[in-house]
Model the fold of this input.
Amino acid sequence: MQIRKIKITFLLIFCIFFYMSCSKDDNNSISSNKNPIGSITEGIEAKVDTHTWKAFNYEATVCGKQIYISGLDSALGQITITINDTILGTYDLNTTSNHWATYSPKNSSDIYTTFSNPNDGGILNLSMFDKDTLIISGSFIFYVYSPQSKKTITISSGAFANINLKKENYPTTGFRAYIGNKLWTSTMTWGIITNDSIQITGSNSQGEQITFKICNRLKNSYLINAQSCHYARYITSTTDNSPYLSNSSSLMNGKFIIENISTDSIIQGSFIVSVYRPSDKKTIHITRGLYNGIKLNQ
Done:
């Protein structure tokens, strides 16, 4: 663990130095140079443990202030990174931050994350973001852990260069997430706040529903797993209302971020979570989650 901290700290110092050398040019692009990642000119590359990983297929989106980057290597699987800001600089990816990363090996249902183990995590440096063309570049290193395999995988020497962001609609009121890689939005929302908890729910016209209950009412990053009092619930439809739960299996985990609660109890934030249904032993992965403009009633 100490060696991991030293490696990440070294790269963090490098990234901060690299970032401070950035300058703003005349076309509203903020960057250090046209190709800040070195040998890579476009795409996403990294090392997965000792193996070279290169995305043959990749995408990146921006929704509000959430940037999502995903790349797939045909032999080694998928890397995803989510940061909930667009400002240039270095972002922590760990159990306590508002940002995260995942790794999914090829032909496996296992998901390794930066928030599954407090001993793991890493950083991403966003070194270039052209707000006119929506092109980004940066670098990353992190350690991800899987409760299923009980193993840590090292993602190092990571770089993404000249990636074009696709702009997606930010919810003015309600939820937006990807459920099993399919975009889902709510048409109805409701929320409750008590002295020691917050609960918010979003549903669409088919009864597909997501609920989060957090045993706190403060702005913070909350881990969702079988050991915590926080939980998530997912219902697929009005005709199939047997719930998937985040606390029904020790292998499930997630993060719920409360980024803001206004003085009139309007809540806004982001989330990622996996939920499990013991009756048919199915797992659902809910990613790229955002919620906004939800009124909390007492």
Summary: The helical segments are 2-20. The longest strand covers residues 282-297. The two ends are 44 Å apart (CA to CA).
